[in-house]
Design goal:
alpha/beta, 2 domains, single chain, 5-stranded mixed sheet, two-stranded antiparallel sheet, elongated
Length: about 325
């Protein structure tokens, strides 16, 4: 697991930012999910499936990135939800199948847990004994979002059907689809109404491929002078910004990182200008030597690092 993967998991596991993320993409910024009501769920999906007429079992274990449970109220009703994030630093061309498996295992675990409880309590009648699931039982809905942190445009499938060959209408109508709920930071034209520092972080990461725009975003917004450590660290690693020293209040002024980048750019420009000036001066000297008959064109072109043809063009203009 790479450093960026670890940082992304740690950052998005923060309850405030986790709740803000889902409130932004599901509820348009309305604070429906209370971060204080989030509970960590074991990220390991462990399921045993009977095979060979139930004489043997096949065991599957997969590890999610982040999954939390919560209870919310909508339309005067309370209900539970399971919310998961799969962080991707790189494009994944089989993400629909991978995410579909995570969700299926999570639902299967719910059924297994309910079945065991009902069998122990003797709550199953003849109709529900085989399945272990009654007509009245309900599963907790699972929402998984693929959060893509990369700088390249996401060009991989976002649905299961995109991974399948072209089918006739009758066949396709019976093939169930699955969507990975992609949130690609680099591809977002409009960001949701986030309330935490996700707003500032995603704005910067969205502009990474346009250095000038990214610098303008940071240097023209006062809030970037007061970043917390985790957000500043994410900007440093995902946007290649230098992490400044924290101030007395424990905050990080990311505007200083932009100033340093500009200073480096100016220094590089001056150095490059000096090199270019030296090169021009050298060519002028060489053309004078050729004109005075003290140096042949082949040797002069070689010293200038040019082809003979290009050097002749300069000589004709001199």
């Amino acid at each position: 697991m790479g450093k960026k993967d670890v940082l992304a998991k740690k950052y998005m596991r923060n309850p405030r930012k986790f709740a803000d993320f889902f409130n932004g993409i599901i509820y348009a910024g309305e604070e429906v999910i209370d971060w204080q009501k989030l509970e960590e769920v074991d990220t390991a999906n462990f399921v045993s499936i009977p095979v060979n007429n139930r004489t043997k079992t096949a065991t599957f274990q997969k590890f999610r990135d982040i999954i939390k449970s919560t209870v919310i109220m909508r339309n005067d009703k309370y209900y539970f939800m399971l919310l998961g994030i799969e962080n991707q630093a790189d494009v994944h061309y089989a993400m629909p199948v991978r995410t579909m498996l995570y969700n299926a295992l999570t639902y299967t675990e719910q059924i297994d847990t309910m079945t065991k409880e009902r069998r122990v309590n003797g709550d199953l009648d003849s109709k529900s004994f085989i399945s272990g699931f009654t007509k009245e039982d309900k599963l907790i809905p699972v929402i998984t979002v693929t959060l893509y942190w990369g700088t390249d445009t996401w060009n991989a499938p976002t649905t299961l059907k995109e991974m399948l060959p072209e089918m006739d209408g009758a066949t396709a109508s019976l093939v169930n689809d699955f969507n990975i709920n992609l949130f690609s930071i680099i591809d977002k034209a409009d960001m949701p109404d986030f309330k935490t520092e996700l707003k500032e972080l995603f704005a910067v990461l969205n502009a990474r491929n346009n250095g000038g725009k990214m610098k303008d975003i940071i240097s023209t917004n006062e809030i970037y002078k007061h970043m917390d450590h985790d957000t500043a660290e994410m900007m440093s690693n995902f946007a290649n910004l230098k992490l400044p020293r924290k101030n007395k209040e424990g905050e990080y002024n990311m505007c200083k990182a932009v100033v340093e980048i500009k200073a480096e750019g100016i220094a590089e420009g001056i150095a490059e200008g000096k090199k270019e000036g030296e090169k021009v001066g050298t060519i002028k000297t060489l053309t004078s030597l050729v004109k005075d008959g003290l140096l042949n064109i082949d040797e002069a072109a070689k010293r200038a690092g040019l082809s003979v043809e290009d050097f002749k063009k300069i000589l004709d203009k001199a």
